[in-house]
Amino acid sequence: MQLAYREFGSGKPLIILHGLFGQSDNWNTLAKKFAENGFRVFVLDQRNHGLSPHSEEWNYQVMAEDLKDFILEKQLDKPILLGHSMGGKTVLFFNYLFPLMANALIIVDIAARAYKPHHQKVLEALHAVNFNLIKTRKEAEQILNEHISDFGTKQFLLKNIYWKENSTLMDWRFNLKVISEKYDNIGVAVPKSESSLSTLIIKGEKSDYITDEDYNDFQQRFTQCKLATIADAGHWVHAENPNAFFETVIKFVKDSIH
What we know:
By secondary structure, this protein is α/β, with parallel strands linked by helices.
């Protein structure tokens, strides 16, 4: 699958993968900062998200293969892979399936274990927005308000609304139908393996996505594994404390990658 992407800068290749319901432009500001510090940065739209194609196939196997195909197409030599949440799981599956293709891994606020379904309220809210009846973002926001109280989550979702080409109708950029039908595919555990790749695990101080047990599991999987906790941040680590996030990633790269 030909994934949509944004490219910034030149130097060592760095690929960034967004999380569920995300898209590449969520990372524009940080991507530009990484580019200013000697990286050729690619921010991808994973399948069924952003400007990338929609597909009935949606699981970590195919998303990892999409990433492999992108690396080969761009002829990238051992890129650094950074993934947030679902994007982090994609990176972990990619390294399990294709263990010699990356230089280092940066996994942001997600563990390798299985997660129970926990986006039901968000999915209910998204399905409640009927674009046959709703004609403005404000109307969509009013519907989301009935289901979601967190302001940041609502604004994050609303960024995915777009006007269909040659149409008076709006829609979600992500493939809501397939995501809803195959949602359980993104909660699965990454198969056990051992790797010597330099790996940084980043968690938000206020997030419960990574526990002490999860970090112990990471240490068994990656012999060169470090954990960094970003203060004053929850699951959206890179958005809630972008400066600390940036400095943490840059320090890891300079210390670990040659």
